[in-house]
Model the fold of this input.
Amino acid sequence: MTFADRLDNAITLKGSPALVGLDPFLERIPPEFPAARDPNASRSEQAAAMGDFLCAVIDLIADRVAAVKPQAAFFEILGAEGVAQWERVIAHAHDADLLVIGDVKRGDIGSTAGAYATAYLTGSAQCDRRTLCDAVTVNPLLGHDSITPFLEACREADAGIYILVRTSNPGGDQFQTKGDPTLSERIADAVVAWGEELMGDCGLSSVGAVVGATHPAELKSLRKRMPHTPLLLPGYGAQGAGAEDVAPGFLPGGRGVLVNSSRGILYPQRDDQTPWRDATSKALDQMRAALAAAGAT
Amino acid sequence: MTFADRLDNAITLKGSPALVGLDPFLERIPPEFPAARDPNASRSEQAAAMGDFLCAVIDLIADRVAAVKPQAAFFEILGAEGVAQWERVIAHAHDADLLVIGDVKRGDIGSTAGAYATAYLTGSAQCDRRTLCDAVTVNPLLGHDSITPFLEACREADAGIYILVRTSNPGGDQFQTKGDPTLSERIADAVVAWGEELMGDCGLSSVGAVVGATHPAELKSLRKRMPHTPLLLPGYGAQGAGAEDVAPGFLPGGRGVLVNSSRGILYPQRDDQTPWRDATSKALDQMRAALAAAGAT
Done:
């Protein structure tokens, strides 16, 4: 089954397009995992504590989300030991029947892009396939030959990609909104073309787009330009966007989106009496309710 | 000493701007390292063979190049074991008094960019500092707040960055040459501004730019736009550019550039009688001679 169809089914099954980003800032991991913040812990102990926390988060949320989005940077910061936890956390998410969107934002010339596509989507001969991602985020700056190996990997492994079209951060304006058509609009048109050969039965492609929820007007016009593209909408919660800001990305029936929150779910504000599980669980329930009220699936 | 000054000194000392890219395609590693291509080898054995080859390359070339440029994708393809070799190879290059430019092409929102800058330039508290890079390549699509953490890391660790301005691959045209000014020109102007606070005594900044040697006319005009920016010029050799194509990037005295060749040095054409070391050594000498003839330092 194509990634597009697997994702659409999973969102329907879980009843929400909420996506939880796994961004393990070491200094914000709950004190229940003390080695994560212990300056005397070894890198391997720090990494294991980070992995313990993320696996516990996965167990807590697996019945309420379709997918998780681990952010590679926070694993790479702990080197090889961090990457070992990346693999552990992804396998754990798959064991919990979650889809995994690897937030790697890779982009390179064709031969190198092929190596990244193998690393994260199709796998080298000796890898444990449970450690591969179902989809990854991709940076399109290098153009078509940097994307082609990922499209081939999507076909080979029924995987997906989310191409950066308009990012949620303050600096996103600097290049992405310049020109006429804007760079984001040019990329959006390319996303549609790249996705045509990878349509699922659900009417959506396995080639998706990242569009920041912090720019609702642009989201609306980019959605019009990409009517069959699954959107990954970052910026909800800690970055300032609310449920009403993501609604312009919904297709009829509230379909076709994943709305990401990372810090808002992993590190919600809480008092000393509230266990982290309760705070995280409540934050996720509030996000699911807000998205449902805004018309999401 | 700033990265700009350390690099300028090293190029003068070694007498060449030749840069060797460490792109370990497993299937092209010489048969003297059999586990690299053995389908029955474990991932750990494959990774170790890859590391053995790259360390041998470093020993062979260290007296003739200022720096090496490992490409992250080919390490990540072997997961945590591959990343362990990434760290080993970088430490080995530093032990051989080489500068290391990590070709990671990372780019993400500010908080995540900060994690990448820590991972590759400044290091987490527990890391072995010999495994850090002197500079990394950075993708600027996300704009200023995706670059700021790298600039801070450059100041903190006397490190450098090379920002993608115009890439060497066929698809580079798709977005980079569009608009007026073009996207590449906009990025070049930003590179100049970002680099102003990081000038070395040599008159060059520690904020560099990647400009493909496969586009000599654009290289010439981009060099005019970025007169104090160290350039990293990929595309020499296997991608088709020759010494005359990189010359428009030289500053007076043939300074201010690194010219990269990866596959042309690591996997030169050779007959069965020629040991890989002889072929690689000869390919590097030819590249150095060609660059010198074209007016490089």
